[in-house]
Amino acid sequence: MEVFVARQAIFNRRQSVVAYELLFRNSIKNCFPNIDESVATAKLIVENQLNFGTRHITCGKKALINIGPDSLKMDLCSFLPPQDVVLELLETIEPTEENYQLCKELFKKEFTLALDDFIYDPKWDRFLKFVKLIKFDIQITPLNQIESLIVRFKKYKNLKLLAEKIETLADFKVAHAMGFDYFQGYFFAKPLLIQQKDIDMNHALALSIYAQAMKENPDINAIAALFQLDTALAFKLLRLINSGVFPVQKEIESLKQALVYLGHDHIKKFISLLVTAHVAQSKPNELIKMCIIRARFCELIAKKVAPANANSAFLTGLFSLLDAILDRPMDQLLIRLPFPDIIKSALMEEKNNLYYILEIVKAYESGSWWALEQAVILLNIPSDILPSLYKNALEWSNNHKYN
Asked: In the chain, helix, strand, coil percent, each to 5?
């Protein structure tokens, strides 16, 4: 499949290119699409860093990558090599205690941090010890309004200043005279669109891996077996290991070895990255959350009526909305999933225990009480225990969000 990214050059005072800002694109139209910032960042990482790498796009120079509040909380930065990137903390990030601690951790990991479209607030002062670059959008904060601030910041020896949205020669001359270190804007160069090839990923299989990774004690063998079923997923995993993010001590000889090397925490984050980038890109987050609630609700019901089928019930609930998420018929999707017949039958609405469990869940969440009473009779389960099971599922889903 075709993937897209734009890069815009950043110049120093001698007008030499020193870095590039990478800008997410999803088509040949060279503009930012109407898409959630965390999805854009996740896709940029998956399609570029986990494809040919950012160095391939920037010719070895530093890459500036936007990080918004959700991306910061999701720790998407952990999939980027600190030596190759500058993290642009977007203006939508607030100077809270939580964000201070997150920035502190990034600083400890030797990431270079920048404040994007900066508008001064004293609350940012304590962050400056972690920050190496401040970007001023001169269309938002005109140069004549920030001159005193520039003089103040120039006293910080390790802090560099960048004037963004330089549109004219006059803008450049004024910013240069004020002491800015770096410059970016249409006066120098418009964003250059780069089109690349990437391997199409089995989105349904990614969700299946996610279900395994969410467990308290995930089965590495089962996860490795699922990765083996999709070339794109296996490629992304191995690219991550070889991307410079992790200091690999010896050659990786198998997918299981790669997963063991990552560890449980990074496996979950990696799968969440893939799900965020590809599965939920055009669907509301609530649809994914509903799948997770359904999965847990189905599992809890199964433990009451058919404990041996609890794991299968979880997968049945998790994939019950897959056709809606991917806009594909369910039968076409199930062909590509390594599910036993009992799960496939339930998802194709063929009557078995898993089908009736899913019917209880659907009836409960839609308030179809007559259908609910019919379903609980078939499974011989009292309906008065369902509210507590549903509450458990809600609480569990809040602790296992994909983003």
From this structure: 55, 15, 35
